[in-house]
Amino acid sequence: MTDFITRFAPSPTGPLHLGHAYSAILAHDMARAANGQFLLRIEDTDLQRSKPEWDALIRQDLTWLGLHWDGPVLRQSMQLTSYDTYLAQLAARDLLYPCSCSRADIRAALTAPQEGHPHEVYPGTCKQRLMSDRKPGDALRLHLDRALALLTDDFPRFVETGEAHKGTHQIDPSQAHTQIGDVVLSRKGEDIVAYFLASAIDDARQDITHVIRGEDLFDFTAIQVILLTLLNLPVPTYHHHRLIRDDHGKRLAKRDDARAIATYRAEGKTPADIRAMIGL
Ligand code: GLU
């Protein structure tokens, strides 16, 4: 078996833009250079925003860019029930609680906006609730204090090879509390696993040895490493790369249709032009 397996894991909620192309090309090239494998995973657990048309366009764009993935494509929506086993394992260890807060409730309960944090840390309104009290429509959250209490003997570590955070990182409980908090693992109103858990489980399921993705996801790595450790799944090596920004220094978003690969394709650009534009 090869000792380098990586993946590109887009959410099909919009077109691929230059930032995604950078991530996919980097992962593909690193896999080929290591004589390893490059896998494709479609992260379509957001059933409202994910569209088959975007999935199809993503695959066309990747093929046009000359990126050929190995093996079958894993589509998360095709295996939703498989995540329940893992949620059940966490529930059996008393690590989940039901939550009925809306986004507006959470915002109102926060004393100050979490400036500079990529997501809102949950203030803990429903923390005292028990699983036996779960109502239809409740989300499920990880009880971070209890999770960390199980790991105190030796907080998990992970290796990062990306420039900005290169080195071995050990989970820092206070940082986990202030940056991440009690994340949602199963979404409100839909019995559907959330990104943090699904993505980490599938990295293990696909035997991913190297997770290559944008810098913006670095802060979430700790929670994924905590979840993998609690579930007795292997922790991959992580490589968080620089983000492609627009002329104003803003990170590209799905809405930046002007930078969509499909737009460049239609304008007659070549895959080599795209590589040049993103400095690869
Ligand atoms: N699906 C996520 C996204 O499109 C990427 C997840 C990951 O690479 O871990 O932003």
The helicity comes to 25-40%
Give the domain tally.
Answer: 1
Q: What proportion of the residues form beta strands (DSSP E)?
A: 5-15%
Number of strands: 10
Distance between the termini: 28 Å
Biggest sheet details: 3 strands, parallel
Which cofactor or ligand species appear?
glutamic acid
Provide the descriptors you would attach to this structure in a database record.
280 residues; alpha/beta; Rossmann fold; three-stranded parallel beta sheet; three-stranded antiparallel beta sheet; 10 helices; 35% helix; 15% strand; globular; binds glutamic acid
Describe what this molecule looks like in 3D:
There is one protein chain. The chain is α/β, with parallel strands linked by helices and 280 residues long. The protein has one domain: 3-Layer(aba) Sandwich (Rossmann fold), CATH 3.40.50.620. Helices cover 35% and strands 15% of the residues. The protein has a three-stranded parallel sheet. Strands 4-5-8 form a three-stranded antiparallel sheet. Strand 9, helix 8 and strand 10 form a beta-alpha-beta unit. Helix 7 crosses helix 8. About 2% of the residues have low confidence. The structure holds glutamic acid. The site of glutamic acid (GLU) has 7 residues, from loops.
Summarize the structure.
The protein is an alpha/beta fold. Helices cover 35% and strands 15% of the residues.
List the SSEs and their pairings:
Blueprint: E1 5-8, H1 18-33, E2 37-42, H2 52-64, E3 74-75, H3 82-92, E4 96-99, H4 103-109, E5 139-142, H5 144-149, E6 157-160, E7 167-170, H6 173-179, E8 184-186, H7 195-205, E9 210-214, H8 218-230, E10 237-241, H9 261-266, H10 271-277
Parallel strand pairs: 1-2, 2-3, 9-10
Antiparallel strand pairs: 4-5, 5-8, 6-7
The structure holds glutamic acid.
Glutamic acid binds at residues 9-11, 43, 199, 213, 217.
InterPro entries: aa-tRNA-synth_I_CS, Glu/Gln-tRNA-synth, Glu/Gln-tRNA-synth_Ib_cat-dom, GluQ/Sye, Rossmann-like_a/b/a_fold
Keywords: Aminoacyl-tRNA synthetase, ATP-binding, Ligase, Metal-binding, Nucleotide-binding, Protein biosynthesis, Zinc
Domain Glutamyl/glutaminyl-tRNA synthetase class Ib catalytic: 6-277
